Amino acid sequence: MSRLKITLRVDFDSVHAIGPGKVALLEKMRDCGSLSQAARELDMSYRRAWQLLASLNQIFREPLVLTSTGGSGGGGTTLTEFGQAIVAAYRQFEKETNARAEKYFGHMLETVSPERKGTKRTIARSLRSPSAAASRRSVSR
């Protein structure tokens, strides 16, 4: 049986949010010291990674990442203390939320049906009204 997994997105307001993609990018930048390398390791375009970083810079008044431009020594990225605190808070919140999910829903895992081909189509058919299905049958005859 697989474990439950909660995917979190924290909305600070109607336009500013942080979620798994932005946190993963911050972690990769922390680990490899480069936005472009972080993007490659996450199988993300550099443009998308740059957009996420710009979005992060708009959310908070202080920077999460310090960047240096390329040159003879190359450029790089470093997470600030605040950036590290954001990642730590998000991961701790995620851990606690997943533990709560296990508490409330873990016993239900054994009742989950295995994924089957055509499940979406079967569900969509079952959600249609009986009268609509009956009229389709009479038209097709």
- In CATH, the topology is named Arc Repressor Mutant, subunit A
> How many helices?
6
Instruction: Indicate the structural class.
Output: mainly alpha
The number of distinct structural domains comes to: 1
* CATH secondary-structure class: Mainly Alpha
Shape: elongated
What is the residue-averaged pLDDT? 84
| Percent range for β-strand residues | 5-15%
Helix and strand sequence = EEHHHEEHHH
Rg: 23 Å
Strand order of the largest sheet: 1-2
The separation of the N and C termini measures 45 Å
Poorly predicted tracts of residues: none
- Major pleated sheet: 2 strands, antiparallel
Helix fraction bin: 55-70%
Instruction: Return the CATH architecture.
Output: Orthogonal Bundle
User: How many DSSP-defined strands?
Assistant: 4
The CATH superfamily name is: Winged helix-like DNA-binding domain superfamily/Winged helix DNA-binding domain
Overview of the molecule:
The chain has 141 residues and is mainly alpha-helical. Helices cover 56% and strands 9% of the residues. It has 6 helices and 4 strands. The strands form 2 sheets. The chain has a two-stranded antiparallel ribbon with strand order 1-2. A two-stranded antiparallel ribbon has the order 3-4. A hairpin with a 5-residue loop joins strand 1 (10-11) and strand 2 (17-18). Helix 1 crosses helix 3, helix 1 (20-32) crosses helix 4 and helix 2 (35-41) packs across helix 3 (46-59).
